[in-house]
Amino acid sequence: MFIAGEALNQRKYALDPWVTRLALAVLEQAIRDLRSVDGSERARQWKLDAIRWFRSADESAGSFLWVCQVLDRDPEKARATLPRLRG
Question: Which domain holds residue 53?
Answer without folding.
Answer: 16-81
